[in-house]
Write a structure and sequence with these properties.
Length: 137
């Protein structure tokens, strides 16, 4: 009995991680899910990385809590083809940041409304290693 409860708990935890990694995509198969992205989503700090991405097209969104009114975005992305654009909306759904992910860049958002922000990745035949971090400023 104890072993089956532990197995069920592990299965539920794994299913939860799969859902978090896939994000809340606008299609049943989010564009990055098959590349098993590593996502850390905590209040005031968000990070995502996906390696070996090839031919990814589509949109995936993550909800992130920012207790501040600005954030800083740290890019560390290698693009071999296509594009990946990060758009960030504040709690009022106002765009506070939009830019293609780049190899090395650290810049802030404009001032927004604190609360639950939306981070949206739009890929168009993207190939490479995607890595970025968003933190409360």
């Amino acid at each position: 009995m104890f072993g089956s409860r532990r197995t069920a708990t592990r299965a539920l935890a794994f299913a939860s991680l799969v859902f978090l990694f896939a994000g809340c995509g606008d299609e049943p198969s989010a564009p990055l899910a098959q590349f098993q992205p590593e996502v850390t989503n905590a209040t005031d700090s968000f990070q995502a990385q996906a390696t070996g991405v090839t031919g990814a097209s589509g949109t995936v969104s993550y909800r992130w809590v920012n207790t501040g009114t600005r954030a800083t975005i740290n890019h560390s992305t290698t693009t071999r083809g296509g594009s990946v654009i990060l758009t960030i909306r504040d709690a009022a759904n106002t765009v506070v940041y939009t830019r293609a992910l780049s190899p090395s860049l650290n810049e802030p958002t404009t001032v927004g409304v604190s609360g639950t922000w939306t981070l949206q990745l739009t890929t168009d035949n993207y190939a490479g290693t995607m890595n970025f971090r968003v933190q409360k400023l």
